[in-house]
Amino acid sequence: MKQDKSLTIGELAVSAHVSLRTIRYYQQQGLLPSPGRRGPGSHYSLADLRRLRLIRRLQQDHIPLAEIRQRLRRLYGDRKSVV
């Protein structure tokens, strides 16, 4: 994948092997930033894909979502896009 490629939510879900519902849930929980825009024109970056894959990997290690959220804040900082 090219570094500047953007992904639709469907492409993001397929690439990360998760459902659309899972992506939306992670956004609601503050684990994954929203794309900034809603609807069919919204796109995600490769950084979002890497973040989503990290979340899934941590979950496979049985780490609770609250702990994952804290780790993501430490890793990515306390940006407005992440609750």
List keywords for this structure.
mainly alpha; 53% helix; 4 helices; 83 residues
Distance between the termini: 28 Å
Please provide the count of β strands. 0
| Principal-axis shape | globular
Can you give the helix content as a percent range?
Answer: 40-55%
Outline of this structure?
The mean pLDDT is 86. This protein has 83 residues and is mainly alpha-helical. It is globular and about 30 Å long.
How would you characterize this protein structure?
With 83 residues, the protein is an all-alpha fold. The protein has four helices and no strands.
Strand and helix map with partners:
Blueprint lengths: L8 H8 L3 H9 L17 H15 L4 H12 L7
